[in-house]
Amino acid sequence: xxxxxxxxxxxxxxxxxxxxxxxxxxxxxxxxxxxxxxxxxxxxxxxxxxxxxxxxxxxxxxxxxxxxxxxxxxxxxxxxxxxxxxxxxxxxxxxxxxxxxxxxxxxxxxxxxxxxxxxxxxxxxxxxxxxxxxxxxxxxxxxxxxxxxxxxxxxxxxxxxxxxxxxxxxxxxxxxxxxxxxxxxxxxxxxxxxxxxxxxxxxxxxxxxxxxxxxxxxxxxxxxxxxxxxxxxxxxxxxxxxxxxxxxxxxxxxxxxxxxxxxxxxxxxxxxxxxxxxxxxxxxxxxxxxxxxxxxxxxxxxxxxxxxxxxxxxxxxxxxxxxxxxxxxxxxxxxxxxxxxxxxxxxxxxxxxxxxxxxxxxxxxxxxxxxxxxxxxxxxxxxxxxxxxxxxxxxxxxxxxxxxxxxxxxxxxxxxxxxxxxxxxxxxxxxxxxxxxxxxxxxxxxxxxxxxxxxxxxxxxxxxxxxxxxxxxxxxxxxxxxxxxxxxxxxxxxxxxxxxxxxxxxxxxxxxxxxxxxxxxxxxxxxxxxxxxxxxxxxxxxxxxxxxxxx
Length: 551
Prior knowledge:
Blueprint: H1 2-34, H2 48-56, E1 69-70, E2 73-74, H3 84-122, H4 126-135, H5 168-195, E3 211-217, H6 232-246, E4 254-257, H7 281-299, E5 307-310, H8 314-317, H9 323-333, E6 338-342, E7 345-349, H10 353-356, H11 363-383, E8 389-392, E9 412-414, H12 417-420, E10 432-434, H13 442-454, E11 459-462, E12 469-472, E13 478-481, E14 504-511, E15 527-529, E16 534-537, E17 543-550
Parallel strand pairs: 3-4, 4-5, 7-8, 8-11, 11-13
Antiparallel strand pairs: 1-2, 3-14, 6-7, 9-10, 12-13, 14-17, 15-16, 16-17
Helix pairs in contact: 2-7, 3-5, 6-7
Protein backbone atom coordinates (compact mmCIF):
# COMPACT_ATOMS: atom_id res chain seq x y z
CA UNK A 1 0.00 0.00 0.00
CA UNK A 2 2.89 2.36 0.84
CA UNK A 3 4.43 1.84 -2.60
CA UNK A 4 1.14 2.63 -4.29
CA UNK A 5 0.72 5.78 -2.22
CA UNK A 6 4.24 7.00 -3.06
CA UNK A 7 3.69 6.29 -6.75
CA UNK A 8 0.44 8.24 -6.81
CA UNK A 9 2.09 11.17 -5.06
CA UNK A 10 4.92 11.17 -7.60
CA UNK A 11 2.51 11.10 -10.51
CA UNK A 12 0.55 13.99 -9.07
CA UNK A 13 3.71 16.06 -8.62
CA UNK A 14 4.82 15.38 -12.20
CA UNK A 15 1.36 16.27 -13.45
CA UNK A 16 1.41 19.56 -11.58
CA UNK A 17 4.86 20.44 -12.93
CA UNK A 18 3.81 19.58 -16.45
CA UNK A 19 0.68 21.71 -16.16
CA UNK A 20 2.68 24.62 -14.78
CA UNK A 21 5.18 24.39 -17.68
CA UNK A 22 2.26 24.28 -20.12
CA UNK A 23 0.68 27.32 -18.50
CA UNK A 24 3.89 29.36 -18.75
CA UNK A 25 4.38 28.42 -22.39
CA UNK A 26 0.76 29.10 -23.23
CA UNK A 27 0.77 32.52 -21.58
CA UNK A 28 3.28 33.58 -24.21
CA UNK A 29 0.91 32.32 -26.88
CA UNK A 30 -2.05 34.24 -25.41
CA UNK A 31 -0.06 37.47 -25.35
CA UNK A 32 0.66 37.04 -29.04
CA UNK A 33 -2.95 36.17 -29.89
CA UNK A 34 -4.34 39.09 -27.91
CA UNK A 35 -1.75 41.42 -29.35
CA UNK A 36 -2.57 40.28 -32.91
CA UNK A 37 1.06 39.31 -33.48
CA UNK A 38 1.81 36.71 -36.10
CA UNK A 39 2.35 33.24 -34.67
CA UNK A 40 5.25 31.13 -35.79
CA UNK A 41 5.52 27.37 -35.19
CA UNK A 42 8.55 27.90 -32.98
CA UNK A 43 6.90 30.51 -30.77
CA UNK A 44 5.04 27.90 -28.74
CA UNK A 45 6.21 24.32 -28.24
CA UNK A 46 2.62 23.38 -27.44
CA UNK A 47 1.28 24.32 -30.87
CA UNK A 48 4.32 23.83 -33.09
CA UNK A 49 3.16 20.39 -34.23
CA UNK A 50 -0.37 21.58 -34.85
CA UNK A 51 0.85 24.62 -36.77
CA UNK A 52 3.02 22.52 -39.11
CA UNK A 53 0.08 20.19 -39.70
CA UNK A 54 -2.11 23.21 -40.37
CA UNK A 55 -0.03 24.49 -43.27
CA UNK A 56 0.35 21.06 -44.89
CA UNK A 57 -3.40 20.48 -45.26
CA UNK A 58 -4.61 23.97 -46.15
CA UNK A 59 -5.65 22.93 -49.64
CA UNK A 60 -7.96 20.14 -48.46
CA UNK A 61 -9.96 22.49 -46.22
CA UNK A 62 -12.02 23.84 -49.11
CA UNK A 63 -13.74 20.47 -49.70
CA UNK A 64 -15.14 20.29 -46.17
CA UNK A 65 -16.83 22.29 -43.44
CA UNK A 66 -18.42 25.58 -44.58
CA UNK A 67 -17.93 24.69 -48.25
CA UNK A 68 -19.68 21.36 -47.78
CA UNK A 69 -22.43 22.22 -45.25
CA UNK A 70 -24.50 24.76 -47.17
CA UNK A 71 -27.95 25.23 -48.69
CA UNK A 72 -29.26 23.08 -45.81
CA UNK A 73 -27.65 19.97 -47.28
CA UNK A 74 -24.26 18.26 -47.57
CA UNK A 75 -22.01 18.47 -50.61
CA UNK A 76 -19.54 15.66 -51.19
CA UNK A 77 -18.53 13.95 -54.46
CA UNK A 78 -19.30 10.51 -53.00
CA UNK A 79 -22.72 11.55 -51.65
CA UNK A 80 -24.58 12.97 -54.63
CA UNK A 81 -27.79 14.66 -53.51
CA UNK A 82 -30.85 14.83 -55.79
CA UNK A 83 -31.79 17.96 -57.70
CA UNK A 84 -35.25 19.53 -57.51
CA UNK A 85 -36.19 17.95 -60.83
CA UNK A 86 -34.96 14.55 -59.69
CA UNK A 87 -37.08 14.88 -56.54
CA UNK A 88 -40.17 15.47 -58.68
CA UNK A 89 -39.33 12.51 -60.90
CA UNK A 90 -38.75 10.39 -57.82
CA UNK A 91 -42.26 11.07 -56.50
CA UNK A 92 -43.72 10.12 -59.88
CA UNK A 93 -41.64 6.95 -59.94
CA UNK A 94 -42.81 6.02 -56.42
CA UNK A 95 -46.43 6.46 -57.48
CA UNK A 96 -45.92 4.13 -60.44
CA UNK A 97 -44.06 1.68 -58.22
CA UNK A 98 -46.95 1.53 -55.74
CA UNK A 99 -49.46 0.93 -58.54
CA UNK A 100 -47.38 -1.95 -59.87
CA UNK A 101 -47.00 -3.33 -56.37
CA UNK A 102 -50.76 -3.19 -55.79
CA UNK A 103 -51.42 -4.98 -59.09
CA UNK A 104 -48.90 -7.69 -58.24
CA UNK A 105 -50.43 -8.13 -54.80
CA UNK A 106 -53.92 -8.55 -56.29
CA UNK A 107 -52.59 -11.05 -58.80
CA UNK A 108 -50.76 -13.04 -56.15
CA UNK A 109 -53.80 -13.08 -53.90
CA UNK A 110 -55.88 -14.49 -56.75
CA UNK A 111 -53.22 -17.12 -57.43
CA UNK A 112 -53.41 -18.19 -53.81
CA UNK A 113 -57.20 -18.48 -53.99
CA UNK A 114 -56.92 -20.65 -57.09
CA UNK A 115 -54.28 -22.88 -55.48
CA UNK A 116 -56.34 -23.35 -52.30
CA UNK A 117 -59.43 -24.11 -54.34
CA UNK A 118 -57.57 -26.74 -56.31
CA UNK A 119 -56.14 -28.21 -53.11
CA UNK A 120 -59.63 -28.53 -51.65
CA UNK A 121 -60.98 -30.19 -54.77
CA UNK A 122 -58.12 -32.70 -54.89
CA UNK A 123 -58.53 -33.46 -51.21
CA UNK A 124 -62.06 -34.85 -51.51
CA UNK A 125 -63.37 -38.06 -53.05
CA UNK A 126 -65.09 -38.09 -56.40
CA UNK A 127 -68.61 -38.00 -54.93
CA UNK A 128 -67.78 -35.02 -52.75
CA UNK A 129 -66.14 -33.33 -55.71
CA UNK A 130 -69.37 -33.61 -57.65
CA UNK A 131 -71.35 -32.29 -54.72
CA UNK A 132 -68.98 -29.34 -54.32
CA UNK A 133 -69.08 -28.52 -58.00
CA UNK A 134 -72.87 -28.68 -57.95
CA UNK A 135 -73.06 -26.44 -54.90
CA UNK A 136 -70.96 -23.76 -56.56
CA UNK A 137 -68.02 -21.65 -55.51
CA UNK A 138 -69.46 -20.08 -52.39
CA UNK A 139 -67.59 -22.55 -50.14
CA UNK A 140 -64.21 -21.55 -51.54
CA UNK A 141 -62.08 -18.75 -50.11
CA UNK A 142 -63.03 -15.27 -51.26
CA UNK A 143 -60.42 -13.16 -53.04
CA UNK A 144 -60.42 -10.74 -50.09
CA UNK A 145 -59.77 -13.33 -47.38
CA UNK A 146 -57.13 -15.96 -47.96
CA UNK A 147 -57.29 -16.98 -44.32
CA UNK A 148 -60.96 -18.04 -44.23
CA UNK A 149 -60.78 -21.74 -45.02
CA UNK A 150 -64.13 -23.51 -45.85
CA UNK A 151 -65.63 -25.79 -43.28
CA UNK A 152 -66.03 -29.51 -44.23
CA UNK A 153 -69.15 -29.97 -46.40
CA UNK A 154 -72.29 -30.11 -44.25
CA UNK A 155 -73.72 -33.04 -46.27
CA UNK A 156 -70.93 -35.25 -44.94
CA UNK A 157 -72.08 -37.79 -42.36
CA UNK A 158 -69.81 -37.28 -39.37
CA UNK A 159 -70.19 -40.96 -38.47
CA UNK A 160 -68.59 -42.03 -41.72
CA UNK A 161 -66.34 -39.10 -42.53
CA UNK A 162 -63.30 -40.89 -41.20
CA UNK A 163 -63.78 -43.55 -43.87
CA UNK A 164 -63.72 -41.02 -46.73
CA UNK A 165 -60.74 -40.28 -48.93
CA UNK A 166 -60.60 -36.77 -47.47
CA UNK A 167 -57.15 -36.53 -45.79
CA UNK A 168 -57.08 -33.46 -43.52
CA UNK A 169 -53.35 -33.85 -42.79
CA UNK A 170 -52.61 -33.81 -46.49
CA UNK A 171 -54.85 -30.80 -46.95
CA UNK A 172 -53.12 -28.85 -44.15
CA UNK A 173 -49.75 -29.76 -45.57
CA UNK A 174 -50.84 -28.56 -48.99
CA UNK A 175 -52.06 -25.30 -47.53
CA UNK A 176 -48.72 -24.83 -45.82
CA UNK A 177 -46.88 -25.28 -49.11
CA UNK A 178 -49.20 -22.77 -50.75
CA UNK A 179 -48.61 -20.26 -47.95
CA UNK A 180 -44.83 -20.70 -48.30
CA UNK A 181 -45.12 -20.15 -52.01
CA UNK A 182 -47.07 -16.95 -51.40
CA UNK A 183 -44.31 -15.66 -49.12
CA UNK A 184 -41.79 -16.40 -51.87
CA UNK A 185 -43.97 -14.52 -54.33
CA UNK A 186 -44.16 -11.54 -51.98
CA UNK A 187 -40.38 -11.54 -51.58
CA UNK A 188 -39.93 -11.70 -55.33
CA UNK A 189 -42.43 -8.87 -55.68
CA UNK A 190 -40.52 -6.66 -53.26
CA UNK A 191 -37.18 -7.37 -54.91
CA UNK A 192 -38.55 -6.86 -58.40
CA UNK A 193 -40.18 -3.59 -57.34
CA UNK A 194 -36.85 -2.30 -56.02
CA UNK A 195 -34.97 -3.46 -59.11
CA UNK A 196 -37.23 -1.58 -61.53
CA UNK A 197 -35.58 1.69 -60.49
CA UNK A 198 -32.49 3.13 -62.11
CA UNK A 199 -30.01 3.08 -59.23
CA UNK A 200 -28.17 6.19 -60.37
CA UNK A 201 -31.14 8.29 -61.52
CA UNK A 202 -31.75 9.88 -58.12
CA UNK A 203 -28.32 9.97 -56.51
CA UNK A 204 -28.25 8.85 -52.89
CA UNK A 205 -32.05 9.08 -52.63
CA UNK A 206 -32.32 5.49 -53.90
CA UNK A 207 -30.24 2.62 -52.44
CA UNK A 208 -27.04 2.01 -54.36
CA UNK A 209 -26.09 -0.96 -52.21
CA UNK A 210 -27.67 -3.43 -49.80
CA UNK A 211 -25.58 -2.04 -46.93
CA UNK A 212 -23.38 0.85 -45.84
CA UNK A 213 -21.82 2.25 -42.69
CA UNK A 214 -21.10 5.54 -41.02
CA UNK A 215 -19.30 6.70 -37.86
CA UNK A 216 -20.49 8.69 -34.85
CA UNK A 217 -17.97 10.75 -32.88
CA UNK A 218 -18.60 13.30 -30.17
CA UNK A 219 -17.09 15.93 -27.93
CA UNK A 220 -13.59 16.33 -29.31
CA UNK A 221 -13.79 19.48 -27.16
CA UNK A 222 -10.29 20.86 -27.70
CA UNK A 223 -8.98 22.42 -24.49
CA UNK A 224 -11.38 20.87 -21.97
CA UNK A 225 -8.78 19.10 -19.82
CA UNK A 226 -6.62 22.20 -19.22
CA UNK A 227 -9.25 24.94 -19.12
CA UNK A 228 -8.12 25.94 -22.61
CA UNK A 229 -4.49 26.49 -21.61
CA UNK A 230 -3.53 23.89 -24.22
CA UNK A 231 -5.35 21.45 -26.48
CA UNK A 232 -2.61 19.27 -27.91
CA UNK A 233 -3.95 16.59 -25.54
CA UNK A 234 -7.32 16.49 -27.30
CA UNK A 235 -5.79 16.90 -30.76
CA UNK A 236 -3.83 13.70 -30.12
CA UNK A 237 -7.08 11.83 -29.43
CA UNK A 238 -8.55 13.21 -32.65
CA UNK A 239 -5.54 12.07 -34.65
CA UNK A 240 -5.99 8.56 -33.24
CA UNK A 241 -9.66 8.63 -34.20
CA UNK A 242 -8.91 9.79 -37.75
CA UNK A 243 -6.40 6.97 -38.18
CA UNK A 244 -8.85 4.41 -36.79
CA UNK A 245 -11.63 5.58 -39.12
CA UNK A 246 -9.38 5.64 -42.18
CA UNK A 247 -8.44 2.01 -41.52
CA UNK A 248 -12.04 0.76 -41.32
CA UNK A 249 -13.03 -1.77 -43.95
CA UNK A 250 -15.48 -1.30 -45.56
CA UNK A 251 -14.92 2.42 -45.63
CA UNK A 252 -17.70 4.43 -43.92
CA UNK A 253 -19.69 6.85 -46.04
CA UNK A 254 -19.46 9.71 -43.55
CA UNK A 255 -18.50 10.77 -40.03
CA UNK A 256 -21.02 12.61 -37.88
CA UNK A 257 -19.30 14.77 -35.27
CA UNK A 258 -22.04 15.27 -32.69
CA UNK A 259 -21.07 18.63 -31.26
CA UNK A 260 -18.68 20.33 -28.85
CA UNK A 261 -15.88 20.34 -31.36
CA UNK A 262 -14.01 22.76 -29.12
CA UNK A 263 -14.23 23.82 -25.47
CA UNK A 264 -13.90 27.61 -25.55
CA UNK A 265 -17.18 29.49 -25.81
CA UNK A 266 -18.02 33.15 -25.62
CA UNK A 267 -19.52 33.20 -22.11
CA UNK A 268 -16.33 32.02 -20.41
CA UNK A 269 -15.21 35.61 -19.92
CA UNK A 270 -18.33 36.11 -17.77
CA UNK A 271 -17.52 33.13 -15.54
CA UNK A 272 -14.64 34.33 -13.40
CA UNK A 273 -14.85 31.30 -11.13
CA UNK A 274 -14.34 28.99 -14.10
CA UNK A 275 -11.23 30.55 -15.51
CA UNK A 276 -9.33 33.74 -14.80
CA UNK A 277 -7.28 33.37 -18.00
CA UNK A 278 -9.81 35.07 -20.29
CA UNK A 279 -11.03 38.50 -19.27
CA UNK A 280 -12.72 39.71 -22.44
CA UNK A 281 -15.01 38.25 -25.08
CA UNK A 282 -12.42 39.11 -27.71
CA UNK A 283 -9.90 36.85 -25.99
CA UNK A 284 -12.44 34.01 -25.94
CA UNK A 285 -13.26 34.53 -29.63
CA UNK A 286 -9.60 34.42 -30.65
CA UNK A 287 -8.96 31.24 -28.72
CA UNK A 288 -12.10 29.68 -30.19
CA UNK A 289 -11.00 30.62 -33.71
CA UNK A 290 -7.64 28.93 -33.15
CA UNK A 291 -9.29 25.80 -31.75
CA UNK A 292 -11.70 25.67 -34.70
CA UNK A 293 -8.79 25.97 -37.14
CA UNK A 294 -6.77 23.24 -35.42
CA UNK A 295 -9.79 20.94 -35.36
CA UNK A 296 -10.40 21.43 -39.06
CA UNK A 297 -6.86 20.64 -40.09
CA UNK A 298 -6.60 17.47 -38.04
CA UNK A 299 -9.93 16.15 -39.30
CA UNK A 300 -9.07 17.11 -42.88
CA UNK A 301 -6.82 14.04 -42.80
CA UNK A 302 -9.93 11.86 -43.12
CA UNK A 303 -9.82 9.84 -46.31
CA UNK A 304 -11.24 12.08 -49.08
CA UNK A 305 -13.97 9.52 -49.81
CA UNK A 306 -15.36 9.99 -46.29
CA UNK A 307 -17.56 13.03 -45.73
CA UNK A 308 -17.67 14.77 -42.36
CA UNK A 309 -20.69 16.47 -40.80
CA UNK A 310 -20.05 18.95 -37.98
CA UNK A 311 -22.92 19.35 -35.52
CA UNK A 312 -22.89 22.36 -33.21
CA UNK A 313 -22.85 21.84 -29.43
CA UNK A 314 -23.26 24.15 -26.47
CA UNK A 315 -19.52 24.89 -26.42
CA UNK A 316 -19.60 25.74 -30.12
CA UNK A 317 -22.51 28.21 -29.96
CA UNK A 318 -22.80 28.84 -26.21
CA UNK A 319 -25.07 27.48 -23.50
CA UNK A 320 -27.32 30.44 -24.29
CA UNK A 321 -26.84 30.74 -28.04
CA UNK A 322 -27.47 33.96 -29.89
CA UNK A 323 -27.74 34.75 -33.58
CA UNK A 324 -24.18 36.10 -33.39
CA UNK A 325 -22.70 33.02 -31.70
CA UNK A 326 -24.44 30.73 -34.19
CA UNK A 327 -23.12 32.84 -37.07
CA UNK A 328 -19.58 32.28 -35.78
CA UNK A 329 -20.13 28.53 -36.02
CA UNK A 330 -21.71 28.82 -39.48
CA UNK A 331 -18.78 30.89 -40.73
CA UNK A 332 -16.36 28.19 -39.60
CA UNK A 333 -18.25 24.95 -40.26
CA UNK A 334 -21.30 25.71 -42.38
CA UNK A 335 -25.03 25.30 -41.79
CA UNK A 336 -25.91 24.44 -38.20
CA UNK A 337 -28.85 22.32 -39.38
CA UNK A 338 -29.18 20.41 -42.63
CA UNK A 339 -30.31 17.11 -44.15
CA UNK A 340 -28.89 14.68 -46.71
CA UNK A 341 -29.45 11.28 -48.32
CA UNK A 342 -27.11 8.30 -48.01
CA UNK A 343 -27.95 5.06 -49.83
CA UNK A 344 -31.71 5.52 -49.54
CA UNK A 345 -31.60 6.63 -45.89
CA UNK A 346 -32.26 10.20 -44.74
CA UNK A 347 -30.08 12.00 -42.20
CA UNK A 348 -31.30 15.11 -40.37
CA UNK A 349 -28.77 17.29 -38.51
CA UNK A 350 -30.15 19.67 -35.88
CA UNK A 351 -28.96 22.54 -33.71
CA UNK A 352 -30.78 21.25 -30.64
CA UNK A 353 -28.90 23.58 -28.31
CA UNK A 354 -31.84 25.84 -29.21
CA UNK A 355 -34.21 23.23 -27.75
CA UNK A 356 -32.43 23.65 -24.41
CA UNK A 357 -32.24 27.44 -24.36
CA UNK A 358 -33.46 29.87 -27.01
CA UNK A 359 -33.64 32.96 -24.78
CA UNK A 360 -30.56 34.57 -26.32
CA UNK A 361 -30.71 37.48 -28.71
CA UNK A 362 -32.33 36.38 -31.97
CA UNK A 363 -32.47 32.73 -30.86
CA UNK A 364 -36.25 32.35 -30.57
CA UNK A 365 -36.79 33.20 -34.22
CA UNK A 366 -34.06 30.76 -35.23
CA UNK A 367 -35.64 28.05 -33.07
CA UNK A 368 -39.09 28.54 -34.64
CA UNK A 369 -37.65 28.52 -38.14
CA UNK A 370 -35.70 25.33 -37.53
CA UNK A 371 -38.73 23.58 -36.00
CA UNK A 372 -40.85 24.31 -39.09
CA UNK A 373 -37.98 23.14 -41.30
CA UNK A 374 -37.68 19.92 -39.28
CA UNK A 375 -41.28 18.88 -39.84
CA UNK A 376 -41.06 19.77 -43.53
CA UNK A 377 -37.93 17.62 -43.93
CA UNK A 378 -39.41 14.65 -42.06
CA UNK A 379 -42.55 14.83 -44.17
CA UNK A 380 -40.38 15.03 -47.28
CA UNK A 381 -38.43 11.92 -46.24
CA UNK A 382 -41.67 10.04 -45.56
CA UNK A 383 -43.11 11.01 -48.95
CA UNK A 384 -39.92 9.87 -50.68
CA UNK A 385 -40.04 6.49 -48.93
CA UNK A 386 -36.79 6.83 -47.00
CA UNK A 387 -35.59 3.40 -45.96
CA UNK A 388 -34.53 4.77 -42.58
CA UNK A 389 -34.46 8.19 -40.93
CA UNK A 390 -31.66 9.23 -38.56
CA UNK A 391 -31.39 12.41 -36.49
CA UNK A 392 -28.00 13.80 -35.41
CA UNK A 393 -27.70 16.43 -32.65
CA UNK A 394 -25.53 17.31 -29.66
CA UNK A 395 -27.85 17.15 -26.66
CA UNK A 396 -29.52 13.81 -25.92
CA UNK A 397 -33.29 14.16 -26.18
CA UNK A 398 -33.34 12.01 -23.05
CA UNK A 399 -30.85 9.90 -21.12
CA UNK A 400 -32.77 6.87 -19.87
CA UNK A 401 -36.51 7.44 -20.37
CA UNK A 402 -38.46 9.61 -22.81
CA UNK A 403 -40.61 10.99 -19.95
CA UNK A 404 -37.79 11.75 -17.53
CA UNK A 405 -37.70 15.09 -15.73
CA UNK A 406 -35.18 16.94 -13.59
CA UNK A 407 -37.00 15.54 -10.56
CA UNK A 408 -36.68 11.91 -11.68
CA UNK A 409 -33.01 12.19 -12.70
CA UNK A 410 -30.98 11.69 -9.54
CA UNK A 411 -27.58 10.68 -10.91
CA UNK A 412 -24.38 12.71 -10.81
CA UNK A 413 -21.26 12.61 -12.98
CA UNK A 414 -18.32 13.42 -10.67
CA UNK A 415 -15.62 15.73 -11.96
CA UNK A 416 -13.08 13.75 -14.02
CA UNK A 417 -9.57 13.02 -12.78
CA UNK A 418 -8.12 15.61 -15.16
CA UNK A 419 -9.92 18.32 -13.19
CA UNK A 420 -9.48 16.83 -9.73
CA UNK A 421 -5.72 17.01 -10.21
CA UNK A 422 -5.79 20.63 -11.37
CA UNK A 423 -5.90 24.00 -9.65
CA UNK A 424 -9.42 24.54 -10.98
CA UNK A 425 -11.37 26.56 -8.37
CA UNK A 426 -14.36 24.18 -8.44
CA UNK A 427 -12.27 21.01 -8.50
CA UNK A 428 -13.22 18.89 -5.52
CA UNK A 429 -14.21 15.26 -5.37
CA UNK A 430 -17.74 15.98 -4.19
CA UNK A 431 -18.54 18.24 -7.15
CA UNK A 432 -19.97 17.09 -10.43
CA UNK A 433 -22.63 17.45 -13.10
CA UNK A 434 -26.20 16.30 -12.31
CA UNK A 435 -27.84 14.09 -14.93
CA UNK A 436 -30.58 16.70 -15.37
CA UNK A 437 -27.99 19.04 -16.89
CA UNK A 438 -27.53 16.70 -19.87
CA UNK A 439 -31.18 15.93 -20.71
CA UNK A 440 -33.33 18.15 -22.94
CA UNK A 441 -36.18 19.88 -21.05
CA UNK A 442 -39.31 17.75 -21.35
CA UNK A 443 -41.55 20.38 -22.94
CA UNK A 444 -39.20 21.01 -25.86
CA UNK A 445 -38.20 17.34 -26.00
CA UNK A 446 -41.84 16.45 -26.67
CA UNK A 447 -41.98 18.85 -29.62
CA UNK A 448 -39.22 16.84 -31.26
CA UNK A 449 -40.26 13.34 -30.16
CA UNK A 450 -43.84 13.83 -31.35
CA UNK A 451 -42.51 14.62 -34.81
CA UNK A 452 -40.07 11.72 -34.68
CA UNK A 453 -42.88 9.33 -33.79
CA UNK A 454 -45.24 10.72 -36.44
CA UNK A 455 -42.68 10.28 -39.21
CA UNK A 456 -41.05 7.12 -37.82
CA UNK A 457 -37.54 8.26 -37.07
CA UNK A 458 -35.44 5.17 -36.41
CA UNK A 459 -32.54 6.42 -34.30
CA UNK A 460 -31.18 9.62 -32.78
CA UNK A 461 -27.45 10.10 -32.20
CA UNK A 462 -25.90 12.54 -29.75
CA UNK A 463 -22.99 13.27 -27.42
CA UNK A 464 -22.83 15.85 -24.59
CA UNK A 465 -23.11 13.25 -21.79
CA UNK A 466 -19.43 12.25 -22.21
CA UNK A 467 -20.30 8.56 -21.74
CA UNK A 468 -21.96 5.69 -23.59
CA UNK A 469 -25.69 5.18 -23.03
CA UNK A 470 -28.23 3.48 -25.29
CA UNK A 471 -31.94 3.88 -24.51
CA UNK A 472 -35.22 3.50 -26.41
CA UNK A 473 -38.63 5.11 -26.56
CA UNK A 474 -41.75 3.07 -25.92
CA UNK A 475 -42.54 3.25 -29.63
CA UNK A 476 -39.19 1.91 -30.75
CA UNK A 477 -36.83 4.83 -31.50
CA UNK A 478 -33.27 4.44 -30.22
CA UNK A 479 -31.51 7.24 -28.35
CA UNK A 480 -27.81 6.47 -28.83
CA UNK A 481 -25.35 8.60 -26.83
CA UNK A 482 -21.67 8.18 -27.69
CA UNK A 483 -18.69 8.66 -25.38
CA UNK A 484 -16.29 11.51 -26.17
CA UNK A 485 -12.90 11.95 -27.78
CA UNK A 486 -11.84 13.99 -24.75
CA UNK A 487 -12.65 13.83 -21.02
CA UNK A 488 -14.85 10.85 -20.01
CA UNK A 489 -17.62 11.08 -17.38
CA UNK A 490 -19.30 8.28 -15.39
CA UNK A 491 -22.76 8.95 -13.95
CA UNK A 492 -23.90 7.39 -10.69
CA UNK A 493 -27.45 7.16 -12.05
CA UNK A 494 -26.71 5.31 -15.28
CA UNK A 495 -28.24 1.84 -15.76
CA UNK A 496 -25.84 -1.00 -16.47
CA UNK A 497 -24.45 -0.73 -20.00
CA UNK A 498 -22.87 -3.47 -22.10
CA UNK A 499 -20.30 -1.15 -23.71
CA UNK A 500 -16.99 -0.01 -22.30
CA UNK A 501 -17.08 3.62 -21.20
CA UNK A 502 -13.95 5.25 -22.63
CA UNK A 503 -12.74 7.39 -25.51
CA UNK A 504 -13.65 6.00 -28.90
CA UNK A 505 -15.93 6.08 -31.92
CA UNK A 506 -19.20 4.33 -32.78
CA UNK A 507 -19.60 2.43 -36.04
CA UNK A 508 -23.12 2.14 -37.48
CA UNK A 509 -23.70 -0.68 -39.96
CA UNK A 510 -26.87 -0.32 -42.02
CA UNK A 511 -28.32 -3.45 -43.64
CA UNK A 512 -31.09 -2.96 -46.21
CA UNK A 513 -31.02 -6.44 -47.77
CA UNK A 514 -32.86 -8.03 -44.82
CA UNK A 515 -36.06 -6.23 -45.83
CA UNK A 516 -37.49 -9.36 -47.47
CA UNK A 517 -37.05 -11.59 -44.42
CA UNK A 518 -38.47 -9.27 -41.76
CA UNK A 519 -42.19 -8.79 -42.21
CA UNK A 520 -43.37 -7.12 -39.01
CA UNK A 521 -43.47 -3.38 -38.52
CA UNK A 522 -40.38 -2.21 -36.67
CA UNK A 523 -42.58 -0.21 -34.31
CA UNK A 524 -44.24 -3.37 -33.01
CA UNK A 525 -41.31 -3.54 -30.61
CA UNK A 526 -39.55 -6.54 -32.16
CA UNK A 527 -35.85 -6.26 -31.46
CA UNK A 528 -32.70 -8.19 -30.76
CA UNK A 529 -29.93 -7.33 -28.33
CA UNK A 530 -26.48 -8.70 -27.71
CA UNK A 531 -23.59 -7.74 -25.46
CA UNK A 532 -21.57 -5.88 -28.07
CA UNK A 533 -24.11 -4.44 -30.47
CA UNK A 534 -27.75 -3.72 -31.03
CA UNK A 535 -29.88 -4.91 -33.90
CA UNK A 536 -33.37 -3.58 -34.48
CA UNK A 537 -36.03 -3.75 -37.13
CA UNK A 538 -36.61 -0.66 -39.21
CA UNK A 539 -39.48 0.97 -41.08
CA UNK A 540 -39.02 -0.87 -44.37
CA UNK A 541 -37.62 -4.09 -42.94
CA UNK A 542 -33.87 -3.48 -42.76
CA UNK A 543 -31.66 -3.45 -39.69
CA UNK A 544 -28.88 -1.43 -38.12
CA UNK A 545 -26.14 -2.77 -35.92
CA UNK A 546 -23.79 -0.54 -34.02
CA UNK A 547 -20.79 -1.02 -31.80
CA UNK A 548 -18.38 1.23 -29.92
CA UNK A 549 -14.70 0.97 -30.80
CA UNK A 550 -12.27 2.34 -28.17
CA UNK A 551 -9.21 4.31 -29.26
